[in-house]
Amino acid sequence: MNYSKNISRKNFLRNSALAVAGLTLTPNIMRATSLLNDENSSTNGKLILKNVRLETGFQYEEGEVIATKTDLFLIEVENGKILKIAPNNTSAKAVDAKGFLMLPAFKDMHIHLDKTFYGEKWQAVRKRKGGVKGMIELEEQLMPELLKTSTEKAEKMIKLLHSKGTSFARSHVNIEPTSKLDSLKNLQKALENKKKTFGAELVAFPQHGVFYKNAVPYLKEAATMDIDFIGGVDPYSIDGAIEKTIDFTVQLALDHQKGIDIHLHESGESGLKTVEYLIDKVNENTALKGKTFLSHCFVLGKLDQNKQEEIAEKLGNAQVGIVSTIPFGKLIMPLPTLQKHGVTVYTGNDSIVDHWNTYGTGSVLEKANLYAQLYGQSTEFLLSRSLKLATANVLPLDDKGNQQWPKAGDDADLVFLDASCSAEAVSRISEVKSLIHKGNMVF
């Protein structure tokens, strides 16, 4: 077939997702993979990539990791899975990855896709009045207008995340008397529109309190819908009752086989009591182990070292995870201490630009870089370990340098970066060149 009759070079370079990504495609592999020119296209079968850079091990000198070994490979993808990892074949009819480093696609594990100013004219955060309850009053005024375009804005946010190498997010979504279930429904529309290029899990989030603004009936209805977690926010300062709020949240999660993810900003005695009470409830209801998270949990950064170790051990034993946006300044979270005790630690952008915060860039690789800087993870080995903040704890090499990702059968969620290894990617916040989600070329 003469492809020059069907598509001009100019149109190919302008429209092809692979061309935009900096990857090249031969005419034969174009035919084999049936790649279309929009972000929702599927490979509809097999995708073959050559000159893919993968990490293969560590290089040591006097017992210290001084470099990361890599090599080029041929990767076959079929039906959204990695089918085969083979020695490189430069003459193969395949997408040329040009030696870019392939890593697990990034995951943002704490974001609010349902309410944002993103895509609007710039506006900074206004002075807060009345603390979190004052912000709740502000939201009650803002949400009706935000809901009018929330589906469109969520899709724009997803495109931003795509550009930063992220193809999956855990998104909190407002469930409260002002929005009722509309915020959830609008976000679900956006996710349906992006389902071939983006995955998500949803948290039914009572931003205005469970009881303070009586979100109970709406939470109960949301729990019957396609959501994954029951959320919460500051049980003591918002609802005025730690036990009552946690008990309700735990029971609702148990009744509908959901997880739990609670925002906890309280940094004093009430914050610590909330952490300890939630740990007790999870230990009583072991079905919630591995499915329960505390977001932010600033109180951990206020404890002395001995208490941090004690709580970290309890969290690890109960399999309660922490999702941190990695704050810095006067408050430094004890994330390495948590990880030492086996606590699952995730990160995310939280707000990109909204009435709460305007600092989100959309990049969790940037969060991994911040983590490395804050906690002195400057060596080749420690930088490579810091990548797990961007990938939700998936690393190409284990701590001994054994290759553990990718393997045949893994989901084909892949990001390609202009970096020699993951340590460089974290340290330099390397440029994202291409993204694949479930075998579908995103860009």
TrEMBL record:
Name recorded for this polypeptide: N-isopropylammelide isopropyl amidohydrolase
Pfam families: Amidohydro_3
Keywords: Hydrolase
Lineage: Bacteria, Pseudomonadati, Bacteroidota, Flavobacteriia, Flavobacteriales
PROSITE patterns, per database record: TAT
Enzyme class: hydrolase
Gene3D superfamilies linked: Metal-dependent hydrolases, Urease, subunit C, domain 1
Domain Amidohydrolase: 246-442
Alphabetized NCBIfam families for the sequence: PRK06846.1
Entry GO MF terms: hydrolase activity, acting on carbon-nitrogen (but not peptide) bonds, in cyclic amidines; N-isopropylammelide isopropylaminohydrolase activity
Membrane-crossing residue ranges in chain numbering: none
Keyword RNA-binding carried by entry: no
UniProt entry tagged with the keyword Hydrolase: yes
Enzyme Commission number, as recorded: 3.5.4.42
